[in-house]
Design a protein that fits this description.
Layout (H helix, E strand, L loop, with lengths): L12 H6 L3 H32 L9 H4 L5 H9 L3 H21 L3 E2 L20 E2 L5 E2 L14 E2 L9 H8 L6 H10 L8 H13 L6 H15 L1 H13 L2 E6 L5 E6 L2 H15 L11 H11 L5 H15 L6 H4 L8 E4 H4 L2 E3 L5 E3 L3 E3 L5 E2 L1 H11 L1 E6 L17 H11 L15 E4 L15 E4 L1 H9 L3 E5 L2 E5 L11 E2 L5 H28 L23 E6 L1
Antiparallel strand pairs: 1-4, 2-3, 5-6, 7-10, 7-18, 8-9, 10-11, 12-18, 13-14, 15-16, 16-17
Helix pairs in contact: 2-4, 2-5, 4-5, 6-8, 7-9, 8-9, 9-10, 11-13
Length: 559
Amino acid sequence: MGATSASDADLPLSMVLERAANAELEELLRNAARAKSELDAVIAAGAGVAAKRSARDLGYSGWAQSTGDRTAVNLVQRLTGSTKSEAFRQVRLGEAMGEADAAIHPTGFGPGTGPDSSAGPGGDSADDPLIDVDGNLLVDPDADPDADARVSVLRPVPVVPWHEPISRAAREGVIRSEAVTIIMRGLGVPNERVDVEMLRAAAVELIADAAGVNADELGARARHLRDRIDPAGVQVRWDERFANRKWRFGRNEDGTKTAYVAFDEEGAAWVESIVGAALRPRRGGPRMVDPVEAERAEKLRVDERSNDQIVYDILMGAMRTGVQADPSTTYGSRQPGIRVVMTEENLDNRATDSEGAEHLVGTGYLEDSKDAVPGSVIEKQICISGISPILMDTSGTILDVGREQRLHTRKQRVAMAVRDGGCRIEGCECPPSMTEAHHINEWVAHEGCTDLADGILLCPYHHTLVHTFGYRVVRIEGEYYLIPPPGENGERIPIRMPSKSPLEKERLRLAGIKAATEAADAAARAAAAGATDREGRPVGQGPGESSAVDPPTRRAVTG
């Protein structure tokens, strides 16, 4: 920041920062967050060592036990003053970092300085191959009289853990240290369906595009990756949560009746849909065009009840009236319900059981929460609601309706929800049900059409921002970019607007693989045939080949 006077040193920090310009304060916050993350990594590494020195096998000689702390988590909590959950996270992170670091940087130990087979946790087995400080395999020193006496106790050849790319990314500053355990929890653990190499590849893929992404978004991406590499696990997790569902009544100290609810996935989606449909105006949902809807929204906005009280009243009213109620009197034009999106390929992915019956095994996603849905639940939804097909070409472009209509239709909004997955502004978590359709070409100013390629989902806040402060949204080769107003030097650097939809992310991933494969094949043909063949055809194009566009793919949405 700028120069400060001697009297500034006596001012409270908040008052000093009040004098900072926005750019200065932004730089300060970024640097402070980076420093905090680096210090968190130090605490985590120390917590990992504390856990190793407090292992249960050490008994009362362990560090934590010898200081009166039951576990390493208790020890770290006492030393750092953190919450127990934060101490637990630091220990888990430290253990992961230590495991990865030991595998990547193996070292030998001098006589009497390293663990041995009788030293408890971390000791080496006599049957393990040994390595020196340079990573070279050694024979048993007892069997080789000429072995270097300085290296008498050595670590076994390490196995690099699957999560090493994640802890390395934290060490190199690509991600924050607090994101490590969140990502690991999202990717899960190896099992009979997902081996270590599959998880390592998933970790590498996630980290490749992780710079600048917050921990919550990285956790969501990790869960989607796990669902992609372990589709059978989606059904297992749904079954587990269904088996653990419960609604338990109790009383607090003053006698008030309370309830504790553990939802299964489908039940949670229904309740969230009911509450979300009723509370949209209160939560900043899309602004109402219809006068009746606008009046209803305004009444809810000025309602004196808290959001928690409104949620309670909504759920009580729904249970009292049940199916006899007119849902439009409570929820307006957007009725509560579960909407699942999936590709046609997954819709056609079926398996035959031992009795010869076919079952859907492909997975889909809940439109708002992006949680994976197993085939059995999708089949039930299809029975209830049917299927609404949405045709998309390989570039992600959906249906057009032309200029006759000013507003996007309901079907177009559904299609945009499938493609965009919510507000397209990077970092915004607003789901599709809380967004508005924005014409990237203004209807009047730029003769905009109500075509899906010219429409994009934005939350009300960012929609207003675009219209008010000189932002524009453009589409370049199928990708959407936000063009900010001119800066101090007149530059307008495009900002990418990635889709939040798991289906769209998967389409882009597969398109990237296909493009890379085709480029490699073309390069190989070019190297073999030269710049052109004898007939003068372009390199990489064989006889009869053309540049025909790939056939469109179809995506299906269950209502």
